[in-house]
């Protein structure tokens, strides 16, 4: 049983595909690492999976409802000057499940608080989102993503711009989350070696095409050797 | 202090002032709440553009002898949808589109007025507002509509926060962000039209921008910013109306002047706060 499955998908803008032949599916508990060079279409692929971009060809099938997808966007939302409290931000992760009901329930608040404790940001709940460090911000946004209670987390370059310490803390938090449930993760990352070392599958995007393989096959393939090896020579 | 109370008591003995006061207070409240979202979404100029469209619509309504609100509310709503669509479409620059539409509406309005009634005191009233322009029927409609805007804002508060803070996330998780953007646009359009005749087409957008910006100098959570905007906006309206009564100055300009002073005060408070923080660390 898959959570998301792409069949012969082409994605692009204004009818011009930037990515073709995307074939893969994500099952419960999978950890898919999306790699590839800048501008290769990784973020486009994420937009497609999130239903923000309609496929030009092929189809994307879902085993889950849209409101049960947890998402951590690439650029931190809001910006430094946006007036938002940390708790307000995390709680907004419950919004989609509210439908048209206007206010959050006690259960929503409890869930938001639980997720904040899990990620070690509960102490920050009364702070302002804008004044947090980059690492704290990403963990707050991860807590917001978890509020969907979904079985699929989509993370778009979650450690970009974080210092090494914050990066390690983020990965630790992510492993903790994966160890306590059968939650699947699709993660775009530039931190290829770290990401691939933990992933179960790799989706490599290159030259307008996507190659999907499990980790062992990827590491044994020419593409994988080149990509990982190239980095090792840095 | 007794002087001020005396003046206020005197003002309330005029029915037209009471009417203007009720409508103005409600509109200030609506504008300040919506303003928080509009300013953060970088839509401040849309408010300005819409008020000019409102001016054009009012002029046309007067020329054809139609009810002013019945013509201008739909026209401004239409313009709001249009501007929203344009600013979402990256091909056309949003700021130039707003400038285009607002000056065009202004020109059309002036043309229509000069061809029909001629340039007279009415034009001045439209531009800079007049507290005398509120008729009894207008008051009922205005009160009902601004009550609607307030109720909608409270009911959709959490959604408005979410689409303002992070629209991509909201969309990705299945929140219909487009619908809530449209809602914000419609509510703003209604608020602008209602406030325009009292505040003036040239000044109404200040009711949207000033209280939100002032609050953001001091507060840093969405809820506190929204509440403090409402408080600032109401107090500035109160002070502005009393000042305009005592010194016989135009209401709109007096309210905006009060807002300017509060904004400067908030900037000063922020500066002092930062300096104090700097001294500690």
Describe the structure.
The complex is a heterodimer of chains A (234) and B (281). Chain A has nine helices and nine strands. Chain A is an alpha/beta fold and 234 residues long. Chain A has two domains: 1-64 and 151-234, P-loop containing nucleotide triphosphate hydrolases (Rossmann fold, 3-Layer(aba) Sandwich); 77-150, no CATH class. Chain A starts with a strand and ends with a helix. Chain B is mostly helical and 281 residues long. Chain B has one domain (2-280): ABC transporter involved in vitamin B12 uptake, BtuC (Orthogonal Bundle). Chain B has helices spanning 2-12, 15-40, 44-63, 68-88, 94-115, 121-128, 136-155, 157-165, 167-172, 177-199, 204-218, 222-247, 251-280. In chain B, α3 packs parallel to α5. At the A-B interface, β5, α2 and α3 of A face α8, α9 and α12 of B.
Set out the fold topology.
The complex is a heterodimer of chains A (234) and B (281).
Chain A: E1 2-13, E2 16-27, E3 31-36, H1 42-49, E4 57-62, E5 69-72, H2 86-91, H3 95-98, H4 106-118, H5 134-146, E6 152-156, H6 164-179, E7 184-188, H7 192-198, E8 201-206, E9 209-214, H8 215-220, H9 222-232
Parallel strand pairs in A: 3-7, 3-8, 5-6, 6-7
Antiparallel strand pairs in A: 1-2, 1-4, 8-9
Helix pairs in contact in A: 4-5, 5-6
Chain B: H1 2-12, H2 15-40, H3 44-63, H4 68-88, H5 94-115, H6 121-128, H7 136-155, H8 157-165, H9 167-172, H10 177-199, H11 204-218, H12 222-247, H13 251-280
Helix pairs in contact in B: 2-7, 2-10, 2-11, 2-12, 3-4, 3-5, 3-10, 3-11, 4-5, 4-10, 6-10, 7-10, 11-12, 11-13, 12-13
């Amino acid at each position: 049983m898959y959570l998301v499955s792409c069949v012969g998908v082409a994605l692009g803008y204004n009818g011009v595909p930037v990515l073709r032949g995307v074939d893969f599916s994500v099952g419960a508990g999978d950890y898919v690492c999306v790699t590839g060079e800048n501008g290769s279409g990784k973020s486009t692929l994420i937009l497609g999976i999130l239903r923000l971009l309609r496929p030009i060809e092929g189809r994307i099938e879902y085993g889950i409802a849209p409101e049960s997808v947890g998402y951590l966007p690439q650029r931190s939302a809001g910006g430094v000057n946006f007036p938002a409290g940390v708790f307000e931000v995390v709680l907004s992760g419950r919004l989609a499940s509210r439908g048209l009901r206007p206010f959050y329930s006690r259960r929503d608040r409890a869930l938001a608080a639980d997720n904040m404790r899990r990620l070690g940001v509960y102490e920050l709940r009364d702070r302002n989102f804008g004044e947090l460090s980059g690492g704290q911000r990403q963990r707050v946004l991860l807590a917001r993503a978890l509020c969907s209670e979904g079985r699929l987390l989509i993370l778009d370059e979650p450690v970009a711009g974080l210092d090494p310490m914050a990066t390690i803390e983020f990965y630790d938090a992510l492993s903790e989350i994966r160890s306590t449930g059968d939650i699947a993760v699709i993660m775009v990352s530039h931190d290829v070696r770290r990401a691939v070392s933990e992933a179960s599958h790799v989706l490599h995007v290159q030259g307008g095409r996507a190659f999907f393989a499990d980790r062992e096959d990827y590491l044994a393939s020419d593409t994988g050797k080149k990509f990982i090896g190239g980095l090792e020579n840095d | 202090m007794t002087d001020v109370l005396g003046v206020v008591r005197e003002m309330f003995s005029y029915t037209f002032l009471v009417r203007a006061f009720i409508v103005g207070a409600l509109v200030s409240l609506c504008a300040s709440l919506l303003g928080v979202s509009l300013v953060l979404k970088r839509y401040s100029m849309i408010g300005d553009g819409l008020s000019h469209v409102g001016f054009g619509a009012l002029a046309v309504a007067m020329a054809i002898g139609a009810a002013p609100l019945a013509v201008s509310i739909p026209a401004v709503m239409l313009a709001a949808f249009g501007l929203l669509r344009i600013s979402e479409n990256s091909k056309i620059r949003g700021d130039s589109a707003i400038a285009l539409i607002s000056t065009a509406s202004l020109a059309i309005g002036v043309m229509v007025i000069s061809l029909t009634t001629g340039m007279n005191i009415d034009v001045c009233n439209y531009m800079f507002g007049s507290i005398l322009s509120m008729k009894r029927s207008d008051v009922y409609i205005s009160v009902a509509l601004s009550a609607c805007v307030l109720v909608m804002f409270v009911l959709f508060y959490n959604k408005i926060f979410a689409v303002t803070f992070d629209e991509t996330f909201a969309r990705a998780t299945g929140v219909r962000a487009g619908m809530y953007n449209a809602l914000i646009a419609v509510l703003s359009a209604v608020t602008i039209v209602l406030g325009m005749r009292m505040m003036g087409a040239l000044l109404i957008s200040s009711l949207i921008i000033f209280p939100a910006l002032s609050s953001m100098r001091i507060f840093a959570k969405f809820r506190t910013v929204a509440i403090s905007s409402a408080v600032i906006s109401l107090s500035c309206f109160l002070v502005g109306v009393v000042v305009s009564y005592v010194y016989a100055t135009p209401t709109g300009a007096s309210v905006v002047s009060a807002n300017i002073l509060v904004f400067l005060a908030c900037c000063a408070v922020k500066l002092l706060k930062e300096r104090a923080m700097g001294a500690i660390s």
